């Protein structure tokens, strides 16, 4: 019982301890550095939620997880989720991508949705342009504001 209390205390210290200058310097080195550090990612995620722009971060995270899919069937399930959650017209967390990228994804997806053909076999990089677009958008907008204001209030 005493051990769990100590573990809980250590966990709370890690979560709520003040941010040190080295962490801030690391996170300000570039958006990709935020993704390398769980604490930085957690703080950035909270910042994006407050800014009502966390759908972009959810999309990026889902694409990273998609790339880790061990099998074609898991890839297809995750890809269909990304399509229905972020890309499809009226999706719950629809991301803001240009019409050319959206049309390209639709053209790849629509024939596959009702067939047994694997999306991975047809085009494993189906979301690459959308990923790059959203990553740049986060970098220029949310990440920029996070570095200017979000890290000052931590």
The unreliable regions are 10-14
CATH class: Mainly Alpha
Instruction: Determine the structural class based on helices, strands and strand pairing.
Output: mainly alpha
Percentage of residues assigned to helices: over 70%
Radius of gyration: 19 Å
Order of helices and strands: HHHHHHHHHH
| Corresponding CATH superfamily | Regulator of G-protein Signalling 4, domain 2
What is the residue-mean pLDDT, rounded to a whole number?
A: 82
Describe this entry's structure for a reader:
It is elongated and about 50 Å long. It has a single domain, classed as Regulator of G-protein Signalling 4, domain 2, CATH 1.10.167. The protein has helices spanning 2-16, 21-27, 31-35, 38-50, 54-67, 72-87, 99-113, 119-122, 128-140, 142-150. By secondary structure, the chain is mostly helical. Residues 10-14 have low confidence and may be disordered. It contains ten helices and no strands. Helix 9 (128-140) packs parallel to helix 10. Helix content is 72%, strand content 0%.
Features:
154 residues; mainly alpha; Regulator of G-protein Signalling 4, domain 2
Show the helix and strand layout.
Layout (H helix, E strand, L loop, with lengths): L1 H15 L4 H7 L3 H5 L2 H13 L3 H14 L4 H16 L11 H15 L5 H4 L5 H13 L1 H9 L4
């Amino acid at each position: 019982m005493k051990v769990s209390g100590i573990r809980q205390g250590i966990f709370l210290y890690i979560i709520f301890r003040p941010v040190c200058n080295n962490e801030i310097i690391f996170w300000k080195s570039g958006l990709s550095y935020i993704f390398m550090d769980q604490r930085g990612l957690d703080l950035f995620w909270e910042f994006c939620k407050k800014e009502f722009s966390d759908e972009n971060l959810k999309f990026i995270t889902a694409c990273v997880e998609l790339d880790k899919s061990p099998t074609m069937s898991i890839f297809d399930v995750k890809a269909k989720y990304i399509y229905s959650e972020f890309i499809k017209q009226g999706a719950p967390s629809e991301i803001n991508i240009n019409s050319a990228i959206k049309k390209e994804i639709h053209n790849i997806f629509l024939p596959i949705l009702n067939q047994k053909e694997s999306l991975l076999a047809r085009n494993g990089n189906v979301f690459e342009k959308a990923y790059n677009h959203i990553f740049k958008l986060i970098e220029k907008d949310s990440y920029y504001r996070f570095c200017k204001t979000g890290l000052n209030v931590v």
